[in-house]
Amino acid sequence: MNQRKKNIVVIGAGPAGLTAAHEAVKQKMAPLVLERADRVGGIARTESYKGYYFDVGGHRFFTKFEKISALWQDLMGEDFLKVPRKSSIYFNNHFYNYPLRPLNALFNLGINESFMVMLSFASSKIRPYPKEETFEEWVSNRFGQRLYKIFFKTYTEKVWGIPCKQIRADWAAQRIKGLSLTATIYNALFGFQNSKSLIDEFDYPTRGPGMMWDRLQEKTKTGGGKVLLNSEVISLNHENEHITDATYIHQGKRFEIAVEHLVSSAPITSLVTMLKPKAPKEVLEASRGLFYRAFIIVIFIIDKPSLFSEQWIYIHSPNVRVGRIQNFKNWSAEMVPDPDYTSIGMEYFCNEGDDLWTMPKTELVGLAARELAELGLADANDIVDEFVLRQPKAYPVYDQNYSNCLSIIQEFIASFKNLQTIGRNGMHRYNNMDHSMLTGMMAIQNITGCNHDLWSVNEEEEYLENEKKKLGMQEKITFTPFTPKDFSEM
Ligand SMILES: Cc1cc2nc3c(=O)[nH]c(=O)nc-3n(C[C@H](O)[C@H](O)[C@H](O)COP(=O)(O)OP(=O)(O)OC[C@H]3O[C@@H](n4cnc5c(N)ncnc54)[C@H](O)[C@@H]3O)c2cc1C
């Protein structure tokens, strides 16, 4: 069969959509990617302001999937830096090294509090919550109530905007798996001294993740794929369980294109509303039951060559609204055009339409400047310029209803013979870049006759063992179970 004839349409040129297109080109097909924005990269894009580069939330590159790692290396070559992670937690006027260092933690907590932490840990082992349905129960059973309150509760509530009692345990299981208090202490005591594998470092393109997506786009185009920017898909016709054609708007004009296979990384909630004839009532209702958390970043350019040594600081203190602070030149020196200046990203988690989301730019800048000074990280008088970016649908929310709603939509989507959803919002799954890319790769392999279950990616560790064989991956995977890498995004 001549694969080139297959009319593959990919919605979205984020990591998932671009990887799908690249894989299609590798398989001798000619995909068309339709991207609403004026650039590639989706949430993982790199923005720039007056020569200062910044991510929409710092994006670390780490993966257990050899195929993805090989692709990253191939795309970035020498422009892929190995960055030793340096991050900390700010709580109760103290900076805790993160990952934890015992002496630092002991010093900050004090002897009494450290003793209480151990008591509370012991009590959680003797009398754990019998059922682990919520985030609070899952974490408390593993770390004890006291550590949960210091290191998890306030920050998690800032990220999600809802009490931890309302966050499902699935989320913790997916994001904090492999981490326990014993493991954390083991890592703190021995990891950074003896074992190279326990040193936490990550990869990062010299001028941010956007470089990766630009190169992936170029490679896809060189191979015969098309990436059409400023092209928003608005409707999808279907008949006999097949998507037949897609309508998109490009430069104010409507275009229709026949579809043989559709691979979509658009939010699953918008995908179902694009269908014509309409999706069944219960599916539309389920899509209204899925929610997202949005994200604002206030960038400050500060007239100081250096402010702090961390790449980012988690702000657990409940008295300020900022959730995390990035220091982009500590990710890569090339993120700033002038070494005498520093660029800081004050990150706020919010809901579209809430007070933060609708706050005028000047007020947001005022709030962020006050909080930066209150935390003692910089003097507001040293701020020379600022930039504000709002990112809708940054985090798919795992609330108590999401899994029922998602199953209804999943079942409906599975009824189509030529439709696959990929990526993060495409699957309403808390996928990192590598998971998102892997689903894109697999979706195309399914079109060529494979039978990958995309929904299992990022769900079960055992899945990796089976799939890496199918994908021809090497046996060895790089995975450090003791390091809480999965907090990167939080
Ligand atoms: C704050 C933050 C920090 C993160 N940090 C990390 C990290 O450190 N490491 C990591 O691995 N991952 C991280 N992630 C996750 C990472 O951003 C995602 O895994 C990745 O961007 C998902 O890629 P995607 O292609 O599935 O989706 P997206 O990046 O959302 O891309 C989807 C694309 O589809 C386009 N689109 C949507 N609807 C339409 C339509 N109707 N028509 C045409 N185009 C459309 C969008 O414009 C977008 O470009 C982070 C995420 C956030 C929010």
Structure description:
It is a single chain. With 490 residues, this protein is an alpha/beta fold. It has 3 domains: 3-43 and 208-288 and 399-459, FAD/NAD(P)-binding domain (3-Layer(bba) Sandwich); 97-198, no CATH class; 292-396, Alpha-Beta Complex (Polyamine Oxidase, Chain A, domain 2). Helix content is 36%, strand content 23%. The protein has 16 helices and 20 strands. The strands form 5 sheets. A 7-stranded mixed beta sheet has the order 7-6-16-17-18-15-19, with helices on both faces. It has a 5-stranded parallel beta sheet with strand order 9-2-1-13-20, covered by helices on one side. A hairpin with a 2-residue loop joins β10 (231-239) and β11. α4 (111-126) crosses α5 (135-143) and α11 (281-288) packs across α14 (402-414). Mean pLDDT is 88; it is low at 190-199 and 461-488. Bound molecules: flavin-adenine dinucleotide. Flavin-adenine dinucleotide (FAD) is lined by residues 11-17, 34-37, 42-44, 56-57, 59-60, 232-233, 265-266, 270, 295, 394-395, 423-426, 431-434, 436, 488-489.
